[in-house]
Design goal:
This protein is an all-alpha fold. Helices cover 75% and strands 2% of the residues. The protein contains 21 helices and 2 strands. A two-stranded antiparallel sheet has the order 1-2. The radius of gyration is 22 Å and the shape is globular. The mean pLDDT is 91.
Amino acid sequence: MPVDPRYEMGKRIAAARRLVRLTQKGLADAAGVSYSTVRAIERGARMPGDDVLDALAAALSVDPARLLGHRGHTDSRVHDEIPALSRVIATYDLPEDGPVRSLDELRAAVSEAVDWRVGAQYLRIARNLPGLLEELARALDGASGADRPEVARLLVAAYRTADAVAYKFGYQDLSARLVELMRWAAPTAEDPLLDVTVAYVRCETFFAAQAHGPGLRALENALDTAPRTRKDTVTATRGALHMRAAVIAGRARREDAAMLHIGAARRCADAVSEGLYYGTAFGPSSVRVHEVSLAVSLGGQHLQRALDIAHRWAPARDLPAERRSGFHIEVARAQLWAGLVDDAFESLKLARRIAPQHVRDHRWVREDIATLRRLKRADREDISNYALWCRAV
């Protein structure tokens, strides 16, 4: 009689929990899931989804593969899905025949996918976006009248969601292609703010190429052409451009421009509530996160600014997981450079608990944990385990 995989999974999780001397309640608290969920998983009553599995693995300081048994790493499973995404992108204007859901259903599907993006759920995106993109291409092909701009807006949002996986996992050519498809579809949406959003996303191609000067010019050109009204969506969208321009100016060592843009972003943020505007998180908390990123980019005397912010403030749980984990990654780098080695490791562990799929392939995480391992090799097995988890060694 075959063994129930749920039961085997539960046994592995319970064994790993006991090794680190956690109760079920302690594991639930550390992973940010409910106590009843942990109990049900350990007794074999349910199988954890990918996000819950990654959260449990992070709390237990083990690779998800140890809990999965015969199944592979999360990142390997993402890479396995990339060919399907590439095929859909290659045939964007020649979609296969097939069903198309109602506009309301497509809105709901894209909204869910955006939630996966801001929550750093890359495996879900990789598995589901190829089919959704193909369906949206069919919908755009057959849309007319007022429906056509709406479908184009959804398609741009879906391309952006797919790009999060391509960019994060190192498929730079595919990422650049997805950005170009966003630029291709955006004019059909007949929404100037969508063009601004595409400019925001396009900047990642400049980051990837380390072409910081041209990236800053592209963002400033987008600001020159962006709408100027007092509507919250306009203020937030312009503020997001300033926010990103500040960081790329910092990378370009353009301190004056960086400070001008972060100041403008702060003024925009003061006028709106924290939220998701055209798929981008913006508001006072998001700007504060980017202030830390800017301070780390500028380095030197600016690092104290990052440390001061981290000392008195941390992003709330309602901020997107990717942004929260990014904050702690930036803080860890500042702490490491300031000689606060133990604090830096605590920040990296917190980033991992928040969004393990975001953290594991982050270049700075690998660089910093490798440095920590060299400094603490003799007496810190937990640092070595973290380095193994993110393949820094």
